[in-house]
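Input (Protein kinase domain-containing protein):
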Amino acid sequence: MTPWSLSPESLQVIHVPPIREYLQRLDMRSIPELASSSSPPSLTGPLQLTGRLPLGVREIISSGGCIVGLYDQTPVVREPNKPLPPCTKVLKYTRDENDRNWLISIKVEARILDILDKLGPHPSIMKSEGLTEDGLVLKYYPNGNMGDYLIRYPEVSLEIRLDWCQQLVAAVSFIHSKNVIHCTIDVSNILLDINLNIILADFQGILKNSAGEYMLDGLSREGSKSSMPRPFPYHAEKITDIFAVGSAMYHIITGGEVFPELDSVRHAVEVQYRFRNTQFPRDDYVCSHIIEKCWRGLYSSIDEVSEDIFTMQSASWAGDVAQKLEDGFFFQV
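Output:
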């Protein structure tokens, strides 16, 4: 029996384990000590990621709770002096093939993505090709995630950044309409396709039924900088996703994470203290009123966020047109 031979019935309802069991899943030793938490990781040199390589995995490109590797579903023969064909898929799999908790998380993600595809599909949702014996096959997006992209290309225009925020909100609106709570909205889980449109990834969150009861729970939750302070951190609702959207928008608009002087793990208590006491960043940035409303829990739905972003986009466009009129742009021959 393979690790993926869990019966379908075992995924009808996933009960949240005791908090101790949940915390045991977090391997704190894998979190590197940062020389300066305000300094982004270097992207100039190759980052060596290690872990097991199931059959078909060329190389590891991401390593967190789960591993993601470039994947050839059909074996590729390497010929001398010829490069391998480009990968179009990745495999998401567990560090330890016998870790039942992470196995269930990946199976939950597969189920949620399958449901969203059948109820949609939506252009900003990660595309899945289903489970194999080793893990979950997903479409590969070579532009990587939003956080890394903004480090490589910090001069992205405000117009594009606002478009990204609107695309993110549209994706979250879609999943919320299908009773899915993402639970880990963050720039590391926002990918960019070949046309630089956003793709929301990592769906190890929650699926509810029409009565609001948990049907599936992949047990993933936000990091401290995306987490709404609440009495029970593992209880998630649409409003907690909206809070996380605020932090993601802050990163997209400003190019950096909220509270850059604080590490999200080592200073998690301080981060949550600041959010709880509305000690938000005081720097001047576009959409600050929208982002702070997300953090304050003042939106009753993600669609209200979309409306405010649209107003911001319209004002930006009107201002641009007014400036061009003033400069005589439209009258130049």
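The chain has one domain: 11-22+43-315.
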